[in-house]
Amino acid sequence: MKKLKVGVIGGTGMVGQRFVSLLADHPWFELTVIAASARSAGKTYAEAVGSRWAIEVPMPEKAKTIVVKNAVEDAEAIAAEVDMVFSAVDMKKEEIKALEERYAKLECPVVSNNSAHRWTPDVPMVVPEINPEHLAVIPAQRKRLGTKRGFIAVKSNCSLQSYVPALHPLKDEFGLNKVLVCTYQAISGAGKTFDTWPEMVDNVIPFIGGEEEKSEQEPMKLWGKVADDHIETAVAPSVTAQCLRVPCSNGHMAAVFASFDKKPTEEQILERWEKFSGRPQELNLPSAPKQFIHYFSEDNRPQTKLDRNLEGGMAVSVGRLRPDTQYDYKFVCLSHNTLRGAAGGAVLLAELLCAEGWLDR
Ligand SMILES: NC(=O)c1ccc[n+]([C@@H]2O[C@H](COP(=O)([O-])OP(=O)(O)OC[C@H]3O[C@@H](n4cnc5c(N)ncnc54)[C@H](OP(=O)(O)O)[C@@H]3O)[C@@H](O)[C@H]2O)c1
């Protein structure tokens, strides 16, 4: 199979660096363009990123010499050069919306990590194991944009990538009706390291702007249905969330409480988690974890540092399932926020789009 040429806009940032490292040796995609702001444009990728490189593995040799383009001013040239772009720019929401739509209208599909288009009704927001059928809304979006090939698809927020997968295989069968979740989120989720955010050493901050709303509302779009030209959001279960920033480099943890109309047994829950596999596993996509949910029976797992990199940071770790006095059950979930929760989740979505023919020329 001929590799698709791909670009990363916002490639010099925290999430962009993840994209660059995941795409360096990808079997289906060839990274040919990296773009960022005017501050980086014209420099080689190595010069533009310099000491900001925050990934545990070295910067890929192939990326070092790529000359960074301007994601805004060079949009037409970039769209002409690549088959699709990944978006990880950090700009004002309205600017991101307009920029992503501009690439789509230039017939360059966009897979975005940003929140800007998550609530655009005809933009699919997809976790490939959970709602791959939402891609069916793309023709309606193309009609609105007046494109033949271009469209935008997005992934959901990093905070919910651990607990929504654990709730999903229980939701319909057992009538999930009420969820309370507290998240413990790593500093890379704010694009920071301990060097750039020293206040986070030995500290917890009980506020992450906009995160609780996203954690409560985005699951409703994931669990929604395609209705003609838009995604109709689900109305249940009710989800309430508190999101805390904790002193970890990577890995978002969630303490979850859940109640059901038909309370399952612990064995039934463990069996549904063990058997949960979706389109990515069926299609054997390159970035898909073999086992999506890993359950740990040890009392002190999952642990952020030990378990965030499971299956290349693409699997979800779950543990501590037990009955609760106010809800039916409580348990703990963990996922890597810049892999499954950001760049890795977007690359998996692009693989799904590719395997299902949405990126064909
Ligand atoms: N970090 C996470 O775990 C995470 C998870 C989910 C979603 N997100 C979202 O993903 C986006 C990127 O996050 P991040 O943490 O990677 O941010 P970041 O480290 O601050 O990187 C921002 C990127 O955007 C580029 N940029 C900024 N202003 C620009 C402009 N005017 N024109 C073109 N490019 C511009 C920057 O280029 P320069 O280097 O040239 O300045 C850089 O490449 C944000 O919207 C964030 O909310 C992040």
Would you mind describing this structure in some detail?
This protein has helices at residues 14-23, 45-49, 61-64, 75-81, 93-105, 138-145, 163-174, 211-222, 266-275, 279-282, 304-307, 310-313, 339-355, and strands spanning 4-9, 29-36, 69-70, 84-87, 110-112, 152-154, 176-185, 225-227, 230-232, 238-245, 252-260, 293-296, 316-323, 329-335. It is an alpha/beta fold and 361 residues long. The chain folds into two domains: 4-157 and 343-355, 3-Layer(aba) Sandwich (Rossmann fold), CATH 3.40.50.720; 160-336, Dihydrodipicolinate Reductase, domain 2 (2-Layer Sandwich). Helix 1 (14-23) crosses helix 13. The longest helix is centred in the last third of the chain and has 17 residues, at 339-355. The chain starts with a strand and ends in a 6-residue tail after the last helix.
Mean pLDDT: 97
CATH class of the largest domain: Alpha Beta
**Strand line-up in the sheet with most strands:** 3-2-1-4-5-6
Strand proportion, as a percent range, falls in 15-25%
Give the proportion of residues in helices: 25-40%
CATH homology-level superfamily of the largest domain = Dihydrodipicolinate Reductase, domain 2
Low-confidence stretches are: none
Number of strands: 14
Tell me what the CATH architecture of the largest domain is: 2-Layer Sandwich
CATH topology of the largest domain: Dihydrodipicolinate Reductase, domain 2
Structural class: alpha/beta
List the helices and strands in order: EHEHHEHEHEHEHEHEEEEHHEHHEEH
The biggest beta sheet is recorded as: 6 strands, parallel
